[in-house]
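so my prof wants the structure for this chain in the tokens format not the other one, which i didnt know existed until like an hour ago. anyway here's the sequence
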Amino acid sequence: MIRLDSRQAGDALASLSTTDSIWLVGIGGCGMSGLAHLLLDLGYRVCGSDSADSPFLQQLRERGVEVAIGHSAAAFRESKSALAIYTPAVAADNPELMAAEQLGVPIARRSSVLAALMRRKAGICVTGMHGKSTTSALLAFVLERLGAEPGYAVGAAVPQLERHARFPARSGDRGIFVAETDESDGTLLEFEPRHAIVLNVDEEHMEYFENLERVCEEFRRFGSRVNGRLVYCADDPRLSKLFAGSPHAVSYGFNLSATYRVELDTDPQPSGVALPRTRFRLFRRAECLGTFQTRLLGAASAANAAAVATLLLEEGFNAVDVSAAIAEFTGAGRRQEQIFHGGGVRVFEDYGHHPEEIEVTLEALARLRGRRLLVAFQPHKYTRTRSLLSRFAGCFHAADKLWIADVYPAGEAEIPGVNGRTLADAVCQAGQSARFAPDLDRLAEEVGAEIEEGDVVLFLGAGDITHAARELAEKLEGDLMARKEEMLAELKAELTEDCVVRMDEPMAKRTTLRVGGPADLYVEPDSEESLSRTLKFCARRQMPFRIIGRGSNLLVRDGGFRGAAICLKQPAFSEIVVDGAEISCGSGARLKQVAQAAKEHELGGLEFLEGIPGSVGGALRMNAGAMGGATFDSLISVRYMSHDGEIHERAATEVESGYRSCSLFRENIALGAVFRCEPADRESIQRKMDACSQKRWGSQPAAPSAGCMFKNPEQIPAGKLVDELGLKGFRIGGAMVSDVHGNFVVNAGGARAGDVLDLIARVKETALAERGIELRTEVEIIGEDDA
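here's what i got, hopefully its the right format
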């Protein structure tokens, strides 16, 4: 059989014409489908086979690839392929490989072909036993955000990239090519990258390597093949021993000896954050390069992000830009991937299948624990289970309930006495309860039967346990949808037909910032009676609710609002009545309309409302103001509804108010207000309104925003502070600090609520670090994170 190394594979590819076919055995796998995309980008004709269909295959079919389901020699012969590619997971007696050998068709391993393709560009290898997929995906994503237009080959789906593999479009050395590089089968030494990131070494792949010393020798030899920077983790004593003396090596990590030192931020997360971020400071020797954050959890995630930052900072990229891009990354498929969130329950799945990965992942998710952490694990390979049995037995200590499925063989022959029950027994002997779950088809049902509100559920393993995870997520999603539909029908039955009642209404449609996930229920009552009924329904159902007004001064997180969003915009709540020098307004009346009504009746004192977006209810809640005026300055009285649905009235003198706040409306709902005005001629009123309008449009951005983002601190106006900090125009994702006014965060196009929140955090951190000023948000933030 003609088996090509990377040099020979490169020559074989160069000799192929555009009409020659390349056959990929197991083309639906993540790695092989990625290689197929690379070959397609280069203009090659690609075909192949796999045992079952998958989303990766659908992507390839959309690009014109012919795929055979099932392995057969006949399909290979009919393709008249000039090159066959396989991975070590393919059995030696695969009929397509045997047919290729009989026909004299060259055969190459996937890694050899990938190494040959990397030689055409400025290659960056990401390798190590744990964290390769996440780190390579993060590096590719950040380079993309920085405008480098990289190529990449990642061993996992990456939702934020068009696909998980792409060949660089730029020519020669200008074309950066990031590749997750496997060390499991001896092909690591076929790569000759420009740069490399080495994350860790561990006792792994013992079916190939004789011992850990052989593993370390493999990495040492690989390091000698790196032409540029060799970035390695100083927290790994074996890597430090291998590379510390190398002149082109740069270290990162928590270790005090690291060139780029990581220091976790242990400050409490902001209140109300549903899913915390991992925050860390990065130092280059004694110099602090800034605070970084990642949406992935745990110290290992911080270290992986630091690895990416280290390489890019060494290559001359700006620390602020790198930090902003890292903050946007949401992760790779099956790596701390949240696949369900609702009803107080979260379900994650993770590819971790080594004791080190398992322990790190469980410790990271422990930060989310409401009540318990439920874990289902599928061992991967008999050889790994046998050689690491004692380490597996002690790595699940953070789990409150544990299920162990049977071993996923990954092409290996069964080893007598090594199975899931063996591992479950070992865990029990180590002092922790574990349940053996031999039937993977029933695993989702077993785990689902144990779930209680507040639980975090994690499915772990590199095999087909993903099907059980997805099955449970689909069931929980269906149950949640059924409950919401039941509540929708129940509430509709209690209200009149003129009321608007919807389910899963996107809050991006209902807020001036144009971001935010859906509210479970959205209600527009048509009367005070309907509002009272809605409040009583929410109390009975123990459902949170929020009055959203016209949607200004409000930021809803991407996960949406688990409750009822109530908007008082129907005519019954929007009336404006003028009686002498008094103006009575419903809480849903627009402030601009109130100012206009006062002008038409030649009443002054409310001109400042012209410059404030939103409604009367929101203005009362926040004591909104502009141009030296504030809502409570001219207020006579208010009508409001308590949360039990009862209506009350109170004189303004009995209502405590302050700067951008009113305690009464934290626990009550404004229904209307009466303002006292002073007679004034229409022309003078118009001049003041024009001045308000001109100031608003001359000093405030036209792009979608929520209004002023921060309350003014005592020392300096918030907008001036942000300007002096040099943050105007700073951007994370689609969110940007306005270049017109520093106290506005605008949706510059395609922003997510997460982008806005990350940008708010960055401004607050900078203000505190550089000026010692603690900024507080004026905008109200509600809802749940989605990541």
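also thought this was worth mentioning. The chain is about 35% helix and 25% strand.
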